[in-house]
């Protein structure tokens, strides 16, 4: 691995690598996979990858030619952040969110390239269709009948705290190098998650500094490391991360570009589980213990078990949202919840 190999990453198992005989094999592997895997060279023939192999500036010029004339959201952190976009000592964010057009942002990256005191500059989750013309069409992975959200992530050397995402994720390194450290879903207790309502990017993140773990404050992190896996990806490589797997992401080059695809196998009209968790904190968490025990049993009955004993005694036509949801009944339930929450 690279120059930081002496850290926690050296002893961790590597993420498995798969070799496909034909690009169509990707679809089958994605459907059957329950753990992360790497496909080396999956996007090696992309024009963006070829441009990046010439130089970071050539890659930026290529990307900029496709950019729409509109402001982009960009995060800028101070040089003393070490590229870690995280909290400051007061638990505010240690970076500023600014808006600028892409030529201005890239000019600043050009000016700072190679400087020891450079600010970390990071454009996160930029919708490729909304902010670019033709970039996705020239650089994309065929994911069959899936309808993924295609996003591009660009920036200098950065460290993004371990977090998870609800959708499945195919992350493709187009320029530079990235290190991914991944953990199974059940490791959330050992990752010491921070606030759910004050986050760097909408998801709760691990409070552990992977480059300098504080085992006195986070002793269970040693257990998480027993279950983690790591890999360093070069330009052209891709990594599949199943839904809800935790991942810590580092941009290791002076300029890095990632294109990722998010998709869910569940219908789009279903709600977000995190919203349900947040509402449960509002409505249930601070109740007396005996009432919480009752609601735990109710959740088991109606949500987690969801067995025939919950509905068999109700005529099928009268089951409402207790029946399998459809787009129509999900819409009615969402409207009911909105009315209830607005009281």
Automatic annotation (TrEMBL):
Query: What positions belong to coiled-coil segments?
Result: none
Note the Pfam families from the entry: Cupin_8
Q: SUPFAM superfamilies, per this entry?
A: Clavaminate synthase-like (SSF51197)
Task: Give the originating organism.
Answer: Sphingomonas aurantiaca
Q: What name does this protein carry?
A: JmjC domain-containing protein
Q: Which InterPro entries match?
A: Cupin_8, JmjC_dom, RmlC-like_jellyroll
Identify the residues that the record assigns to the JmjC domain, covering every copy.
98-278
